[in-house]
Design goal:
It is built from 13 helices and 2 strands; from the N terminus they run ααααααββααααααα. By secondary structure, it is mainly α. It is globular, with a radius of gyration of 23 Å.
Length: 321
């Protein structure tokens, strides 16, 4: 009897140890999945927020239309990928038409800046916000007119790139490609701002527009280039995300809210803030969805409120690079 009790106790200890290890392994897998999902979302959100920061830093306009430009990039990405497939090219190269789709919409930025925004630079901020909100409505109507209201998506391209395993966590390779692409774009933006003549002009005019004009800087050209670059960053983000989700007209509205949270957390006008803020929002959103989806927006709003109360200028407020 004593030997039987010892055997049971030993078996129970072994079972407890195995269960504990199983739970630890499962928890580690869940954490990796949540983190990678959050970073993937943050990588596309960063592109949108970077364009928003760039435009505000130079032109002092908070572009509410950034989310709609993101949605336009997503729909255009679907069209480009479909044409790519019709040409008989391999699906694994679908990243190429997605990048081309985002870049091809540069003319939208020129049209909006020259056709609308140039008339309101010296007007009240509320007027500027109303104008960019009008652009939101116009782009949404254009999307409905061209593509209708049904969601659009690419067929199976997301899984063509395969998956990798990290400590039992299954990570889609396409997510890693998008994350790497965003990091490369972030590095290129940093290089442009710090090392190129145009970057120096951007930083100088962001700090003192009148001084830039006095030194002979053509502000009309700078504004066109900056807004076009901000537009391309937004449309590129929308195009890159489309294999993993469907393009919908309302997707831009959600991104406007998230971009607002990013710039509040990171600091309005700061590119470092855009990177940090997007990472915070992406990871918090992923954890909220995994644990209690109803808290997704509430948790982000609480962080935004906390930043506004304790550090109103944002974590990197005042930093231009």
């Amino acid at each position: 009897m004593a030997a039987w009790r010892i055997s049971l106790r030993h078996a129970a200890m072994i079972h407890k140890d195995l269960v504990g290890k199983g739970l630890d392994g499962h928890m580690t897998t869940d954490i990796i999945n949540i983190l990678m999902s959050g970073i993937f979302y943050a990588s596309t959100l960063f592109l949108l927020a970077a364009g928003l920061q760039l435009v505000f830093g130079v032109q002092k306009i908070f572009n509410l239309a950034c989310g709609s430009l993101y949605a336009l990039g997503a729909y255009t990405g679907v069209v480009f990928v479909e044409q790519f497939h019709r040409m008989g090219l391999p699906p694994i190269l679908s990243l190429i038409p997605l990048i081309l789709a985002g870049l091809s919409l540069f003319f939208v930025g020129i049209v909006i800046e020259r056709g609308l925004l140039r008339f309101v630079y010296d007007r009240d901020e509320s007027f500027q916000l109303l104008l960019t909100f009008a652009v939101v409505l116009m782009i949404e109507d254009i999307i409905r007119f061209i593509w209708g209201t049904s969601p659009k998506s690419t067929s199976g391209d997301y899984l063509v790139y395969g998956q990798i395993h990290i400590l039992d966590a299954v990570i889609p390779v396409y997510n890693l490609i998008v994350i790497a692409s965003s990091l490369i774009i972030a590095a290129l933006i940093g290089y442009m701002l710090a090392k190129t003549r145009f970057g120096r002009i951007i930083r100088a005019t962001a700090d003192d527009r009148q001084m830039g004009e006095a030194l002979g800087v053509n502000m009309k050209v700078v504004y066109v280039k900056v807004f076009t670059l901000g537009t391309v960053l937004g449309t590129l983000g929308g195009a890159l995300v489309i294999p993993s989700t469907a393009a919908m007209t309302e997707m831009g509205v959600e991104l406007i809210v998230m971009a607002f949270a990013v710039v509040v957390i990171g600091g309005l006008g700061s590119m470092k803030g855009a990177f940090f803020g997007a990472l915070v929002v992406g990871i918090l959103r992923s954890f909220a969805i995994a644990s209690y989806p109803e808290l997704e927006l509430l948790l982000i709003y609480l962080i935004v409120i906390g930043v506004l109360v304790f550090k109103p200028e944002g974590i990197f407020g005042g930093s231009r690079a």
